[in-house]
Amino acid sequence: MKIRGSVKLDKKTKNLTTKIHDGEIAVICHRDLDEVAANSLIQSKVVAVINCDKSISGRYPNLGPSILVKSKIPIFDVIEGDLFNLLQDGDIVVIQENQLIFENNPIGILQQLTENQIIDLLEKAERNLEIELEKFIDNTLTYAHKEKDFILGKLKIPKVDTEFSNKQVLVVVRGQNYREDLTAIFPYIKEVKPVIIGVDGGADALLEFGFIPDIIIGDMDSVSDNALIKCKEIIVHAYPNGEAPGLERINTLNLKAKIFPAPGTSEDIAMLLAYEKGADLIVAVGTHSNMIDFLEKGRKGMASTFLVRLKVGSKLVDARGVNKLYHAHIKLKYIFWIFFAAMIPIVVTISISQPIRNLLTLLVIRLRILLGV
Questions:
Q1: Domains of the chain: which residue ranges?
Q2: Choices 3.20.19.10, 3.40.50.1000, 3.90.550.10, 3.90.960.10: CATH for 2-124
Q3: Which residue, of 88, 139, 269, 368, has the greatest Cβ tally within 10 A?
Q4: More confident residue, 121 or 295
Q5: What values do phi and psi take at 353, rounded to 5?
Q6: 315-354 burial string, b = 16+ CB within 10 Å, else e?
Q7: CA torsion 107→109→111→112, rounded to 10°?
Q8: Which residues form the signal peptide (predicted)?
Q9: Does residue 362 carry a pLDDT above 90?
Q10: Distances (CA, A) of 311 to 9, 40, 116, 159, 291
Q11: What angle do CA 70, 73, 77 make, to 5 degrees?
C-alpha cells in the first residue's frame, strides 16, 4: 500500500475535523479512538489516519478503528517517530511499507490496523471490561458523594432570559448517532417547537437540521463561531470555583454570556437548568449515559450524570437510539387501496353527470372514426 498526500495535525481530533480537507491525511494523538471521532474523520473524507497514540489500548472495546476500516479508510498507529515535531500542516508525506516518508527520508515507523487485528484487540478489551467496570463504579460512587449538591439543590442556577416554565425542552449533544436520532424526532421538533439547548457541538448539529438553538451551554471548545453568533443565549460552563476559560472566546467574538459554575459535564447542567426552570418535559439526544460513553470522553466515572438523571428522571425522555425502534415502510397494497378509494368519487361523478357522459361518448365516436372501426 502506498498513500501520498498532505497532512493536517492536531492532538484534539474534534479540532482537526474542523480544518482538514478532502483527500488529506489526518495525524492525531487519540488513545482509544471513539466512534464519534471516527465518524467525524469519515465525514471529513480523509484518505488515511495516523495515530500517535494507541488506537485501541485494551481498556475497553472502542469502536472507532473498526468504523474507519469498514469505510475503507486505513488507520495506522505510530510505533516510532515524533510526528508533531517533525511535520507541519500541509507537508506532503508518503506512507509505504509501514514507513512514513517526508522529503525522501523515513521519519516514522507505522503499524496498520487491519480488520483481523482490530477484532483480536477488541476481544482482549472485552475480557478486560469487568476490571474496568469495577474501577468505574468505585470512582463514580466516590465522586457522587462529593457532587451530591446536584441532588440537594445547593447549586446556584443562573438567571436566564429564555422561558422554560411548563414547556418541553430538547437537549442536543453531538454524541453517537445524533443525526439519525434528530431525523427520527424531526416531526416532533417541528410540531411541538420545544425550547432548544445545544450542548457545545450539539448547537452545530441543530444548525445542520435548520434549527437555531435558544441556548448554547458548554465550555465552548467544540462549537463553531457561526452557532454562537446565531443562538439567542449563551451559558459558559465554568469550574466550581468560578473560573471559565470558555468566556475568553465569547469576549473575543464580542458576545454576551452567563456563567454556570458546576462540577460534571455540560450536558448535565443543561438538563439541570431545564428542570430547575420548570420544564414540563426534557428530551435528550446524543447524550452520554453509560460507561463506554464516559471512557470515550476520558472520564473515569459518571457521578454527576448519575445524580442529575436521578433528579430529573421523572421528566426526562432519552431519545438516544430512537431511530432504531421502528422503520415504517409503505406497502404496495396500501398504495393500491388509496388509488382505488380515490377512483370511487371520480367514477360516481362520471356516472351521474350528463355533460361528462356526453363528452365521453363523443370521444369514443372520434376514436372509432380515427381507427376506421
A1: 2-124, 147-324, 335-371
A2: 3.20.19.10
A3: 269
A4: 121
A5: -100, 110
A6: bbebbbebbeeeeeeeeeeeeeeeeeeeeeeeeeeeeeee
A7: 30
A8: none
A9: no
A10: 42, 33, 44, 20, 19
A11: 105
- For residue 154, how many other CB atoms are within 10 A of its CB? 8
- Mean pLDDT in residue range 137-160: 76
CA distance 55 to 23: 21
Q: For the whole prediction, is pTM greater than 0.70?
A: no
CA proximity to 213, closest of 297, 299, 285, 149: 285
Q: How many helices (H) and strands (E) does the chain have?
A: 17, 14
pLDDT value for 351: 64
Question: What Cα–Cα distance (Å) separates residue 130 from each residue in 65, 134, 135, 291, 311?
Answer: 22, 6, 9, 11, 28
Which helix or strand (DSSP H or E) is residue 117 part of?
A: helix 115-127
Give the separation between CA 25 and CA 9, rounded to whole angstroms. Answer: 9
Spatial separation of the C-alpha atoms in residues 11 and 338, rounded to whole Å: 57
Cell of 237: 460552563
Q: What is the reported pLDDT for 79?
A: 95
Residue spans of alpha helices (H) in 155-263: 178-184, 186-192, 202-208, 225-230, 247-252
What CATH number does the domain located at 147-324 have?
A: 3.40.50
Instruction: DSSP letter for 108, please.
Output: E
Q: Are strands 316-318 and 281-285 parallel, antiparallel or unpaired?
A: parallel
Grid cell 465552548 is found at: 220
Asked if residue 62 lies in contact with residue 86, where contact means CB atoms within 8 angstroms, the answer is no
CA distance 190 to 300: 38
Distance in angstroms (rounded) separating the CA atoms of residues 32 and 149 = 32
- pLDDT tens readout for residues 156-197: 899 999 999 999 999 999 877 788 889 889 999 999 999 999
Angle at 63 between CA 265 and CA 86, to 5 degrees: 85
Return the sign of the alpha-carbon dihedral for residues 303, 307, 171, 256. negative
List, edge to edge, every strand of the sheet that includes 258-261.
258-261, 233-238, 215-218, 195-199, 168-173, 281-285, 316-318
